[in-house]
């Protein structure tokens, strides 16, 4: 079965992709009749060396994404994973020559088709009197024994584009640029690894991997690598890759050792998530620095892909200060990252956490009667939530992820752990503030944020007084904060419905002669409101995206909130008995 691709046609996908890039970038132009993109300010390059590169499509943003001042003058694109036509390469050479450039350097990745086609175009151009040189880049560090064909050209080629572009922009001549980039290429290596293959439009995946395997040392055309290894952690995979790339027993290794200074490229082969890419980048930096290698610059992103291949390549380039200046030189190429011109190694990466504000001393002695009562309440709440975990998860599955019970259990276990550390503050305001911070840190999800908001706001009225009117005001403040930031309202089928119903009953605490019986009414109202959410249409939260016909159970957040209130009431009643 062929893979799904968002294309207009298999035959025209390379043309359409290049046309789209040019359409969105005023600095680029297409060369009529050819799959060639050139700088739109080509006529301003009189007296400079032109730089042309290219190859098969499917490696985006390479190669056209690296056209711009300070990098490539133009690129010639073939069909997907296919070398470009000789006629188009020759047309590009003629175009830049007729614009007044003083010579052309062809930067070619080491693949047979590219060498042949670019080489033939070069010979034809030279026969026409156009000065043209060609460098063939082979930076693959996969093969421990060098093959006759040489090392394959991989993502390191982009660094050659950058170095050559900086030299050309500085007015350096064709012969010197050719010699210098040829030397730079010798101090560079790249190794790829993939979790699975890719598929050319209209075709099946190029190879198959089992669920517990990854492919090491593969190229950028969907071809298999040098060996398959078992799936491992990101740290272990990066360590293995760097070992392979730098081992002196590997004939294609990069001679990196302790004290070396390098540019590191972490390249997405097309289908890896940015989350995974960041994890790989962190592992690579830690591993290299652990070996005593100094990372001068680190480039992380998608530079040379293999369609949708979920994998990465690591490139190491040995650098000194003159070479680093060329890497740092300005460029307008759209795909070149905005890299800070400072050393990566040796930089302070962590800022000290801000100091916490000083807390007012607890007005009631910890360990007193009030504090002990708080412990009993919290212990009952925790036990209740842990007992409801499965039920709440089952209710939550109707709206998607089914983790409401797990989230509340996580909060309960965090509170239990906190209570073991010592008695909680007896001051209600300090207690609610502490619980707020704990839930924000440990509970996670929107529930943690909502409880955190509620408790933070509820603590404020209790700083001055702790009588029943103050507790009613605390409930009002908490509900107001939840509505302000959570955007839910009563009747939206959320945890707010239970709390709101209880809050309305607790208004009676603001009247003279109020007592604990009001709390009993509040809890019953909260439970009734939780049950009533069964018939409500969700107006907020994840459930609002689900058809109301599927929501035939009460909202789990509302059920949890009512259960918490019930647990509080039961402890207080037992204390009064």
Describe the structure.
Helices cover 42% and strands 13% of the residues. The model is unreliable at 545-550 (pLDDT under 50). It starts with 12 loop residues before the first helix and ends with a helix. It has a 6-stranded mixed β-sheet with strand order 1-2-4-3-5-6, sandwiched between helices. A 6-stranded mixed β-sheet has the order 9-8-7-12-10-11, covered by helices on one side. The chain has helices at residues 13-23, 86-98, 112-127, 156-169, 174-185, 234-246, 274-290, 321-328, 369-387, 389-396, 404-420, 428-442, 445-459, 468-486, 495-505, 517-532, 556-576, and strands at residues 28-30, 36-39, 50-57, 74-80, 104-109, 132-137, 188-194, 213-216, 227-230, 261-268, 294-301, 311-318. By secondary structure, the chain is of the alpha/beta class. It has 17 helices and 12 strands. Helix 6 crosses helix 7 (274-290), helix 10 packs antiparallel against helix 11 and helix 16 (517-532) runs antiparallel to helix 17. Catalyzes both the phosphorylation of dihydroxyacetone and of glyceraldehyde, and the splitting of ribonucleoside diphosphate-X compounds among which FAD is the best substrate. Represses IFIH1-mediated cellular antiviral response. Its cofactor is Co(2+). InterPro entries: DhaK_ATP, DhaK_dom, DhaL_dom, DhaL_dom_sf, Dihydroxyacetone_Kinase. Residues 9-336 form the DhaK domain. This is Triokinase/FMN cyclase.
């Amino acid at each position: 079965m062929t893979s799904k691709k968002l294309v207009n046609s298999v035959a025209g996908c390379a043309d359409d992709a290049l046309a789209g890039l040019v359409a969105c970038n005023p600095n680029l132009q297409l060369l009529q009749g050819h799959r060639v993109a050139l700088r739109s300010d080509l006529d301003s390059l009189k007296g400079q060396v032109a730089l042309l590169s290219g190859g098969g499509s499917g490696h985006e943003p390479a190669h056209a994404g690296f056209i711009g001042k300070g990098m490539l003058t133009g690129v010639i694109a073939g069909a997907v994973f296919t070398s470009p036509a000789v006629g188009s390469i020759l047309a590009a050479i003629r175009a830049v020559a007729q614009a007044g450039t003083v010579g052309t350097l062809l930067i070619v990745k080491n693949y047979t088709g590219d060498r042949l086609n670019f080489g033939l175009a070069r010979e034809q151009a030279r026969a026409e009197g156009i000065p043209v040189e060609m460098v063939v880049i082979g930076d693959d560090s996969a093969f421990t024994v060098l093959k006759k064909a040489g090392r394959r050209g991989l993502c390191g080629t982009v660094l050659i584009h950058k170095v050559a572009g900086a030299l050309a922009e500085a007015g350096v001549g064709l012969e010197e640029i050719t010699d210098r980039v040829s030397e730079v290429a010798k101090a560079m290596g790249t190794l790829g690894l993939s979790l699975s293959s890719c598929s050319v439009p209209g075709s099946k995946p190029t190879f198959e991997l089992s669920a517990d395997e990854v492919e090491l040392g593969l190229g950028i055309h969907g071809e298999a690598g040098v060996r398959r290894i078992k799936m491992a952690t990101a740290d272990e995979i990066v360590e293995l890759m760097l070992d392979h790339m730098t081992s002196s027993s590997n004939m294609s290794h990069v001679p990196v050792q302790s004290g070396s200074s390098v540019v590191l490229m972490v390249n997405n082969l097309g289908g890896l998530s940015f989350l995974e890419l960041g994890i790989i980048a962190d592992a690579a930096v830690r591993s290299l620095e652990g070996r005593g290698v100094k990372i001068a610059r680190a480039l992380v992103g998608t530079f040379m892909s293999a369609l949708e291949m979920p994998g990465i390549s690591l490139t190491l380039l040995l650098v000194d200060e003159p070479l680093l200046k060329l890497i740092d030189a300005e460029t307008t190429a759209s795909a070149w990252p905005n890299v800070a011109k400072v050393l990566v190694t040796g930089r302070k990466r962590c800022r000290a956490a801000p100091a916490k504000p000083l807390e007012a001393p607890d007005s009631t002695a910890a360990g007193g009667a009030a504090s002990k009562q708080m412990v009993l309440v919290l212990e009952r709440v925790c036990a209740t939530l842990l007992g409801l975990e499965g039920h709440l998860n089952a209710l939550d599955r109707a709206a998607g992820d089914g983790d409401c019970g797990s989230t509340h259990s996580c909060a309960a276990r965090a509170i239990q752990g906190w209570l073991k550390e010592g008695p909680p503050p007896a001051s209600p305001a300090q207690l609610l503030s502490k619980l707020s911070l704990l839930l924000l840190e440990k509970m996670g999800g929107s529930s943690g944020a909502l409880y955190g908001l509620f408790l933070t706001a509820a603590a404020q009225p209790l700083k001055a007084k702790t009588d029943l009117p103050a507790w009613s005001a605390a409930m009002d403040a908490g509900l107001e904060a939840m509505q302000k930031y959570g955007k839910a309202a009563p009747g939206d089928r959320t945890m707010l419905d239970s709390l709101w119903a209880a809050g309305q009953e607790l208004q009676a605490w603001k009247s003279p002669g109020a007592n604990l019986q009001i709390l009993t009414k509040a809890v019953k109202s909260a439970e009734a409101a939780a049950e009533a959410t069964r018939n409500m249409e969700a107006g907020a939260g994840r459930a609002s995206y689900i058809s109301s016909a599927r929501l035939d159970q009460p909202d789990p957040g509302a059920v949890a909130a009512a259960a918490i209130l019930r647990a509080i009431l039961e402890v207080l009643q037992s204390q009064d008995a």
